[in-house]
Each structure stands twice: as structure tokens, then as C-alpha cells.
Amino acid sequence: xxxxxxxxxxxxxxxxxxxxxxxxxxxxxxxxxxxxxxxxxxxxxxxxxxxxxxxxxxxxxxxxxxxxxxxxxxxxxxxxxxxxxxxxxxxxxxxxxxxxxxxxxxxxxxxxxxxxxxxxxxxxxxxxxxxxxxxxxxxxxxxxxxxxxxxxxxxxxxxxxxxxxxxxxxxxxxxxxxxxxxxxxxxxxxxxxxxxxxxxxxxxxxxxxxxxxxxxxxxxxxxxxxxxxxxxxxxxxxxxxxxxxxxxxxxxxxxxxxxxxxxxxxxxxxxxxxxxxxxxxxxxxxxxxxxxxxxxxxxxxxxxxxxxxxxxxxxxxxxxxxxxxxxxxxxxxxxxxxxxxxxxxxxxxxxxxxxxxxxxxxxxxxxxxxxxxxxxxxxxxxxxxxxxxxxxxxxxxxxxxxxxxxxxxxxxxxxxxxxxxx
Amino acid sequence: xxxxxxxxxxxxxxxxxxxxxxxxxxxxxxxxxxxxxxxxxxxxxxxxxxxxxxxxxxxxxxxxxxxxxxxxxxxxxxxxxxxxxxxxxxxxxxxxxxxxxxxxxxxxxxxxxxxxxxxxxxxxxxxxxxxxxxxxxxxxxxxxxxxxxxxxxxxxxxxxxxxxxxxxxxxxxxxxxxxxxxxxxxxxxxxxxxxxxxxxxxxxxxxxxxxxxxxxxxxxxxxxxxxxxxxxxxxxxxxxxxxxxxxxxxxxxxxxxxxxxxxxxxxxxxxxxxxxxxxxxxxxxxxxxxxxxxxxxxxxxxxxxxxxxxxxxxxxxxxxxxxxxxxxxxxxxxxxxxxxxxxxxxxxxxxxxxxxxxxxxxxxxxxxxxxxxxxxxxxxxxxxxxxxxxxxxxxxxxxxxxxxxxxxxxxxxxxxxxxxxx
Lengths: 422, 422
Known about the structure:
By secondary structure, the first copy, chain A, is of the alpha/beta class. Chain A has helices at about 15-25, 45-50, 65, 130-150, 150-160, 170-185, 215-225, 315-335, 370-385, 385-405, and strands at about 5-10, 30-35, 40, 60, 75, 80-85, 90, 95-100, 100-105, 110, 160-165, 200-205, 230-235, 235-240, 245, 250-255, 255-260, 260-265, 280-285, 290, 295-300, 305, 305, 310, 350-355, 355-360, 365-370.
């Protein structure tokens, strides 16, 4: 190519990568944005796809479409397998390669089983749309299997749901599952009573939503219990198999265990050959560049960085801020200006718990219950990409509120993918 | 079971099966409705899911939910593998069995390749939600492959789309694909021009939409051509492989061939051991019962029957009417009243062609173009099951009309399911 502009390559179209690309719209660079998927995903609402409240396309938008008017970006659907920082080159799974002048690595995180990868088969996690659709199918099939099962013990195992991990995803899933069993499926079955389903949220630490103040954690626990969720804290799951899970001294028969506990950084970080933290994240410089490679930046869940002496959390607002900071650093480099450290601006923290229940912590403001839920809803709809998605999601919520129904309770995927009978 | 009511077993929750079940709501029977899927599907809009205009849940509703208030129905998610008319018993894939007093077999049709089953791998059809999602992924990936391809011949093959079969499904798919290439994807790619995509509709017979009057067929052809579709009639595809298809003397390189040509009845019909027609459908008695087995009925696409001397077409209104007729026949049998022949009431015929274009034939009324399209839209939204679905579908259409956008352009499914590069 004879294009004289510096080539910025961005790996990952999540919050960090996409926000960086947009912030470089007027910079004298050409950008290639690479993602394995064709869409940007609004991960905070992924649990709603898993629990059949929303369709997959409601929380995703094609990257090409988002960036169609930004002429200096080319979007490429591909998987990056290796990076050579010395050559300033990266390779794709089809053996092609691409050279860069600046690189932003923002390929995110996946779930981690703390050295127990054998649990993955029986405790699916929730990071991608495919994960969400797999989980939806599993949850809907579990009630179907219970309905068809005549043995009471086997039936109880199909109606026993465990969620491992008391962070925001675990809390959201537990609350929504309890709502489905208590309200949505009411009257639809003839042999089982869905309200007999048991939903247990398990957190090894002392409290759920550990990133919130203690009093909000306690209120979240009470709201969960009111919705019918059993909350177990200070106790760890030590084994998971097809039949159930081991919790302390008890083995609990359960056909559904959802993993919402651990994350690990994308393995791509390893090919940079720089220091990683225990979760596999890149320990970046204060300006988010990589030690020894000022032309490589890392952002989003893949970056391990401190701001004001505290680790920056792996949340969407932090990823967006990192993306914008990295764009500013590239522009500064091109203009010969010095680098500046990244500072995370914490606007607050919010988590939903279930029907009309949430907790909000914004500076001195602490809310819980219905008011917090409205706050949560407004924030999430506002931050969705695309006008159509906002309208559809609002409509779905209005409908769910009014009718207790969940519109996406459709099982698809080949039958052999559903859990077999034994 | 000590339930003294006669047991009506319905196999298939499509239009025939579901309408029969609802028409038996007040009959002194207990009903088991069996389907391999958990949902009723509004098949007339399936092409919209395949072309990313609608989400899968927009055109489907859980059978349990539709029938939740009808206390005499039990819904069972299972696959029927065999029927023994002598024992009045059927078997499931898990080897369990179920006895019936009355049976309605309405398991529908699948696509048929006229003895060329080897074409199936390279010419997917469109009968289920899984088919539609597979096709959507394939279509979206084709443009991505073209964008990444530097060899002009290979790129052209990725941008070459053929639809085999000029019936309503083929016409709808061809028109929508042309719209996507000409409008939806405009400006989103950097290396290809999506408007260079070629969409060809191939019909072996003399004209498209053969079930319509000749002048409407001709108008449909002209509307298709205006949308940019090449229409080839009177010529048959004689080979399909990974690289393309043989049309007359020409081999045309194309990575996407969609099969909308033939249907074959569900293979379950064979286990009844009664005469079938060439498409594998059961040749039923005038009252829709099976010869020699007055307690077995066949409805929907699986039934081969004449009304007023003409074969009843495989369309949704005919299936609904058959379902209701069979329910009436079962009630008559229980009350000791005589059977009556099924008479198909033909309310008309309508097919959509693409953006704002359709043809309508209702008695003496013949419409084409925009007015026909509004007619088509109103009819389809009206017949969708569920208030929420109607609102969401209308909203999606309004959005697509205003913006030329298609909200569901999201590729999911494991990457290995997408077509490999060579």
C-alpha cells in the first residue's frame, strides 16, 4: 500500500477498541479494526439474552455498520493468533499477516475455572452471544426435562439451579431465574410446578457484590432472598460434574450450574512477551502502553493498571475511558507531545438484581430497590448502541413488566446440543 | 392413567396441529401435543429471519405459552420415531411410548433435493429457525469473505448468489437479498462494492409464482428485475457443488446457492403403512382420515387431498382449516355424528417480492406493487401469534422502511460452522 498515513491496528471491537477507533476519526491515521465477531456486544445485558428476555440482535450491532461513516477505518472479521512486537506484525488464523505502526490490543477476557478446566463442560459461563444462547437453551430444556421425568429425585435435579459467583453477572442471573420460575412459567406445565425450582447463588467471599459498600451488599442479599434465591456466602464449590456440585460437605444434585466466578485475560497477551498479572492481564505503563514498546497499547479487560492507587475495575465505563485515552496517546505521539498517565474517572457502580430491584452507588448516593432499578434501566438503555436497539429493548422491558413474559423463550440449535437425558 | 376421557395425540405444533388443539378446547378429550421444538413457528416470515430483518423469537412463540390456559392439553417436547396403527401407540426417540385413541399426524414437510441429497451440503433450504439462522450466517459471512479476498474471480464467487425455486420463498429471498446488497450494506465495506453482488433466481418451470395467474407472475418478474434480481425461467440446475452450480451448459461459480425448490413430507408418514403420493404425503380420505384407520387423521403439508377437484395447496390457511376440520371430525365421532368431507376455502394468494413490492390475488382482485405490499404486511402481522410479536415485527418493519437497515445482522454460531475459506 502506498498510503503514507501511520497504520493503527486495533484488535477487539469491544468498548475499549471501538471507543479508541471512534476517537481517532479525525486523526491522520488509517485504522484496521479486527474482531473475531462481526458485532459490538453490549455485555452488561448479556444475561437478558441468556434468560430469554431479549433477542441476541437486541444487544449487538454490526461493527461495520457502527463505523460505516468513518472513512479511515477498515473492519476485518478475523482471528489474530500471534503478535511479533519486534517485526510490528500480527498473524491471522488463515496464516495471513498485517503490519502495524501502532497496536491496540483489546481482546478482552474469557471465563476461568481456577485450574479446573474440566468443570467447563458442566458449568458454562457467559461472555459471548453464543454462550448466552447456549445457556438459554440449557435453562429452557431443563424445565422440559423435569416435566417429562417421572423419578422425583431426577426431576428435582433438573429443577435445581446453581450460580457460582456473587458478582453482578451472578446476581443478575440468579434474580432473573427466580423470576422465571415463579412467574413466567406459571401455569405452563402439567406435571411440575416451576415454583418448586431452587435457585442458589454461591459466593466464596463473605458477601455478594463485593465491589459495593457493605450495606448495599446486604440490601442486595435481602432483595435476592425476597425473589426466592438462596444465597450462600463464605463457602466454595469444590467439585462440579454432570450430576451436581460439591458445596462444603454436601454434594447437591443439580443439572444446571452456571459459572459467573472467574475471568482470565485473552491468551493473545502472552505473545507480547511482557509481564502479566495472575489473571493473565498485561501490566501496562501508566499511559497504557506496554513496557519497552511505546507503540503497543493494551486496553479494557486485558489491561492491569492502577489509577489513584487503586486497580481499575473490569467494567464498561473503564474500558471506554481507556480506549479514548489510548486514542489521545496516539494523537499525542504523532504530534510530538508527551504521554500522560491514564486516570480512571469512577462515575459509580450499579447492578440489577431482578424484577424492579437493583443497587446503585454513585459517590455519596446509595439507592436500592425500585428507584435503583429505574436508574439502572435508564443508564443501560442510554448506553446501548443504536436507536433501534434502544426502542426494542425498552419495548421488551415494558412488555416484560406488564405481562411477566419473556419473549425469547425459543429453543433453537440442533437437538444434539441440548443436554442428553442421562 | 385413570382419566376416562379419550386421548387425542397431536404430532406437530404447526398450523394444522395447533389449530386442531385449540378447536378441541371444549371437547371431552385429553390432548397431548408433541413437537420436536418448543415453539410454534410463523413460517411465512422465516425468510425475514434468514435475511436478518427479524430475530428468531419475533416469529415464534412457545407452544406451552400459547396453550397455557387450555387445561385439557399437555405439551411434550419430544421426537416421534414410529407409529403402530394396530396397537394405537407411538414411540419416541428415547424409547418411551404413548397410547392414543385419536391421532393427528401433522409433522409437516422438509426440503427435498429430487434424488440429489448430496446437494444439501452446498444448497441449504429454509424450513426451521435453525435453517434460517444458518442461512443468515452464511449470507453475512459471504460478504465478509469477499471483502477479505484479493483474487477477483474468488471474490466474484462469494458475491454470486443463486436461489433455486421460483415459488414464494424463492421470490422473497431473491428480492430481499438484492435489497441488502443494493441498500443495506452500502458504504460498509472498503474493498468490495456490495452492489456488484449478483442475485439470480432460477425456476425450472416457465414462470415464477406458478400458483398465481400469469399476468401476476409477469408483474412479479418485472418487480424482481427492477430490484436487481436476474430471473432465469425454463432452465434447471443440474449440479451443485462447493464451487458453484451447473445451469444448462454453463457452470457458474457461486459460493451461495439456496434451495427453495422441492419439499418432501415428514418421513414419519411411512410408518403408517398407507399409500403415499410422490412427495411422500399421505393420500387421505375426503374427511382427512387415513384409509382403514378412521381414528388417524393427517393434516397440513403432510396430507395429500383434493377439494372441489383441485389439490389443496401447502399453505398456512389450508393447514389451519384442516386442523379445525379434524377437530370437528373428532367431536363428530365422539357424538356419533357422521363424517363430512374437508372443503378448502381459498381466501386468496399473496406473495411479497421485496421492498414495497408484492402480488396479491383474492378472487377477482389482483394487486401488485406498493398497494399489494401493504396488503401483504397487514395480513402477515395480523396472523402472527402474540401481541408482543406483532408490535415488534411492525416496529422492525417501520425501522427497515425508514433506514434501509436490518437489525439482526449479527453473526453467531461457532466459527467452524461458517463456510471455510476454500
